[in-house]
Amino acid sequence: MKDLIYRKIIHDLKKRIFNNEFPSMRLPDERSLTAEYNVSRSSVKRALSSMAQEGIVFKKRGSGTFINPLYLKSQSSFNYEGSNIGITDSLKSNGKKQGIKVLDFSVIPATKSMKTDLFLNDGDFVYKIRRLRLLDEEPIMIETGYIPIKIAPELSKAIVEKSIFNYLEDAKGQQVTRSYMSIQVAPSNQEDQELLGLTANEPVGIMSGIFFMDDGTPFEISNMRIHYRHMNYSTFVSVD
Fold first, then answer.
1. CATH architecture of 1-66
2. How confident is the model at residue 14 (pLDDT cuts 50, 70, 90)?
3. 176 and 81 in contact (C-beta within 8 Å)?
């Protein structure tokens, strides 16, 4: 439960940062945040430390905690941070309305590679979920994911029309906190061109890999094909 509390603080502070609620670029002090969120001081400290490790904020001794301007610099709509990240919360929509169109929601037997990657047994099945992500009705991403039925047997079309990761957190108290992802650019195929509005000579960004829950359980194999204008990958490197 303590883990969930500090992650909720991070989630909310990220939202507030991108809603420009801190124009001075300085966050409230720990005492104020503790009172505001009605949590323990240790939960606030852990949230701020985690955000500092991600490069979202930095601390000035004696001055407070400040938002890293580089975190806000990207004008790309899709900014993947590589930590507890569902796509819904990674879209910096700048006031645009997010949308999801479900292209396929079905059940299929797990393939050999799925069994290996998702730690499944013979006879296990997975959900196949294909979705088109939109901003103001403009298609920006094609998602294809495979989730073991035994992890979330109650999934429905109504649930996958929204954020699956947020559902997992809100309904089951679990979070997807890690991923192993590969990133590349490739020539767009016919489906990319039809669904994302690309021309034959325009590329597509691809992010593919596995998402893991906070207890280390593999949750989803995912492939995301992203309109190149909306893709930016950011990470924070610490040099010791």
1. Orthogonal Bundle (1.10)
2. confident
3. no
Q: Which residue has the tokens 């790309």?
A: 76
CB atoms within 10 A of CB 164: 26
Q: Which tokens is 215 given?
A: 């207890």
What is the reported pLDDT for 100? 93
Q: How confident is the model at residue 239 (pLDDT cuts 50, 70, 90)?
A: low
Q: What confidence category does residue 112 fall into, taking pLDDT thresholds of 50, 70 and 90? A: very high
8 Å CB contact between 202 and 49: no
User: Where in the chain are the domains?
Assistant: 1-66, 96-228
**Spacing of C-alpha 5 from chain mean position:** 18
Angle ∠(200,206,209) on CA atoms, nearest 5: 155
Partnered with residue 183 across adjacent β-strands are 207
Say if 1-66 and 96-228 have the same CATH topology.
no
Q: In what order do the strands lie in the sheet with 203-213?
A: 98-109, 125-135, 138-148, 218-227, 203-213, 176-187
**pTM for this structure?**
0.70
Q: State the CB neighbour count (10 A cutoff) for residue 240.
A: 2
CB 104 within 8 A of CB 129: yes
Structure tokens that stand for 2 in this block: 């303590």
Helix, coil or strand: residue 160? helix
